[in-house]
Amino acid sequence: MADFQSARAPWAVDPRHSRGRLHPEPADARSPWQRDRDRIIHCGAFRRLQYKTQVFIFHEGDYFRTRLTHSIEVAQIARSLARRLRLDEDLAEALALAHDLGHPPFGHAGEEALDSQMRPYGGFDHNAQSLKVVTSLEARYARFDGLNLSWETLEGLAKHNGPLRRPSAYIAEYDRQHPLDLTTHASAEAQAAALADDIAYNNHDLDDGIRARIFSIEEASGLPLIGDAFREVKAAYPDIPRDRLVTETVRRVINVMVEDVVREANRRIAALDPRSVDDIRAAAEPVVGFSRPMAEANQVIREFLFTRMYRHWRVNRVMQKSKRVAQLLFQLLHGGPQMLPDDWRVRAGEAGSPTCARVVCDYIAGMTDRYALEEHRRLTDPNIPG
To answer: What region holds the HD domain (predicted)?
Structure first.
């Protein structure tokens, strides 16, 4: 079998020329991004993704996806794209595994709750929080806070959605200490991880929505891409069981999307003719992306999921309750930091202060759905001991 990594493209990141780490460390047998990936997998924030919402709260069923299973699925697609495009698979995988580390409990409802409470103090953004987790909040090593990841991994986390002209407060603060070239694009590996997130998110939410009986595969078959795959499977396997029909349809849509990204990326790279990763960063547009027809089809799927799933009454009911839980937790702890665990209380300082707000926000953002619900009960039910 060919050694794909030895055929790395000239515009891929090169592990021999990493810009290093904020705190220098001796090299070992792994590449910088293999080492980053291993640190991400072993950190507490990664383990907690197991009990953080993707769409459905953890107690609604073990079959639905969580942030952990979603991150693993994104990593698989990111590695596939990186291999096909002759990029560094390990960096793409590390970025995919880390991209959701900053998500609070209860998915987007939790993010909206924290953002509303933090508006007087700079707001809350899960992308910036992911960077904060790996550069500050993880406390595992003797010599430094955070995971001390390589520059290329941090760059990809900060800029995976493109150049940052107006970075959030924490990203701007970190950039002053450890510049990440925020006004350029990230590497092609980071762009591949971002596209992998889009592919996984839509398709796997579609799968979960069907299995939750929020809508049917027949209803979804009216969508672009989904309809073609659905009809192909029905024609090839007329008697296929329903669960397999859904899985096979979604699998084929993912494959079609991946093939589109590979073709479009190769077209953009050929037009740009880059000679190094810096040419990728300086390009006018990302080199890894959907073709225009695929982007339009993907947007139609997004809109269907938004109206039929994310705004479904069952999802809304749980999300509204969850949002109130996160808001009340913030209000209680911001006004009474003496109720925080010892290590958090020391950092929080004076009740109601901006520093206290940020510490309380970090504390809540790190919670799992289950822990947030338990903490809410402990703080609001006088019959439950603290």
So the answer is: 67-202
Which residue's entry shows tokens 């209680």? 332
Is the predicted pLDDT of residue 258 greater than 60, yes or no? yes
Q: Is the dihedral of CA 380, 125, 304, 236 positive or negative?
A: negative
Q: What is the DSSP string of 347-383?
A: HH-STTSHHHHHHHHHHHHT--HHHHHHHHHHHH-TT
Angle of helix 369-380 relative to helix 313-335, nearest 10 degrees, comes to: 60
pLDDT at 4 over 50: no
Q: pLDDT of 57-83, one tens digit each? A: 444 555 678 899 999 999 999 999 999
DSSP 106: T
**Cβ burial 51-77 (10 Å sphere, 16+ → b, else e):** bbbbbbbbeeeeebbbbbebbbbbbeb
Per the structure, the complete domain to which residue 302 belongs is given by: 193-314
53 φ, ψ to 5°?
-65, 140
Say if 101 falls within a structural domain: no
Cα–Cα dist 76/93, whole Å? 7
269, two tokens: 């790279």
CB–CB of 147/101 below 8 Å? no
Phi and psi torsions of 295, nearest 5°: -60, -40
Per the confidence metrics, is the pTM higher than 0.90?
Answer: yes
The two three-digit tokens of residue 60, written as one number: 């609604």
Q: Tokens 């970190």 label which residue?
A: 174
Residues 91/187, Cβ–Cβ less than 8 Å: yes
Residues 6+ apart with CB under 8 A from 209: 55, 215, 305, 308, 309
Lookup: tokens for 92: 């793409």
Distance between CA atoms of 153 and 169, rounded to whole angstroms?
Answer: 19
Q: Are 81 and 92 in contact (CB under 8 A)?
A: yes
CA 184 to chain centre: 20
Which tens digits make up the pLDDT trace of 292-344? 999 999 999 999 999 998 888 888 888 899 999 999 999 999 999 999 999 99
User: Side chain identity at 55, as an amino acid letter?
Assistant: V
Give dist(CA 170, CA 176) in Å, integer. Answer: 10
Give the count of domains, the chain: 1
